[in-house]
Amino acid sequence: MDAVVGRALRKTYTTGETIVRALDGVDVSVAAGEFLAVMGPSGSGKSTLLHVLGALDSADEGEVVLGGRSLTGLSRKELALIRRHQVGFVFQFFNLVPVLTVEENVMLPARLDGTSASECRTRLEPIFEMLGITEQRDKLPAELSGGEQQRAAIARALVNDPAVLLADEPTGNLDRSSGDVVMSLLRRLHEAGKSVVVVTHDPGVASSAQRVVFVRDGKIVDEATGDKRALLERLVELEA
After folding, report:
1. Please, is 38 exposed, middle or buried when counting C-beta atoms within 10 Å of its C-beta (0-12, 13-18, 19+)?
2. Is the alpha carbon torsion for 191, 196, 201, 206 positive or negative?
3. What's the pTM value of the predicted model, to 2 decimals?
4. Which has fewest Cβ within 10 Å: 28, 82, 167, 231?
5. Cβ contacts of 109-115, under 8 Å, gap ≥ 24
6. What stretches in the chain show pLDDT beneath 50?
């Protein structure tokens, strides 16, 4: 079964008198357990696609099916529940709450879902151990390095054990060493059975994926396997 499917997705934004077709009839599917990368020039629509697939935003036209369930016609409350239970999000700028500790940030989705603090802490132990941030659990985000903040954001995405992990430029705000650590963690999660979708400009990041789709002007224009040199050459062609 596919983890998430988008069919004939269209999304238009209006900025002043300018109409931007962020998605222009996109068809995409992510198989259960697949690692997919989405590449393309800035403004091509790849982040919009990720947000629509994860129910953070809605398409003007088309359908998203997540975990076998169509999102069409669902209420805001139903969509919020789907986001909390079925999807984990990782963003470029971490989006951690600055006044909460790492533990409190990571627990937040589960606490919003009514899970007790003791149950949350039980869930956190193996996640913190896997991500190597057990010693940072009582620190505030400002006390962490960028790589540690991103690992905390990944932990937060995992706390409700979602089937699908969506990452938008997860290494874009990190140095190379920290980015390599984050990508190693995403590969481990994929190997453990998670479906992973990563939006990236970096061919090195995309080369971790089993399959790469290229987006330009709101359309998927090509796809490839994760060979780094081929990805770089194709990205240069699309940027031209």
Report:
1. buried
2. positive
3. 0.88
4. 82
5. 109/84, 109/156, 109/159, 109/160, 110/159, 110/160, 112/84, 113/84, 113/85, 113/160
6. none
Q: How many CB atoms lie within 10 A of CB 129?
A: 10
Structure confidence at residue 139 (pLDDT)? 96
Report CA-CA distances (Å) from 46 to 22, 99, 150, 237.
8, 31, 21, 17
pLDDT of residue 16: 78
End-to-end CA distance of the chain: 37
Residue 128 confidence (pLDDT): 92
pLDDT tens-digit map of 7-49: 999 999 887 788 889 999 999 999 999 999 999 888 889 999 9
Beta partners for residue 190, in sequence order: none
* Domain range annotation of the chain: 30-59+74-239
Task: Give the pLDDT confidence of 82-94 residue by residue, as tens digits.
Answer: 888 899 999 888 8
Q: Which residues pair with 38 in a beta bridge?
A: 199, 213
Distances (CA, A) of 79 to 9, 54, 69, 149: 18, 9, 11, 27
Separation between Cα atoms, residue 40 and residue 53, nearest integer Å: 17
Distance CA(168)–CA(57), nearest Å, equals 14
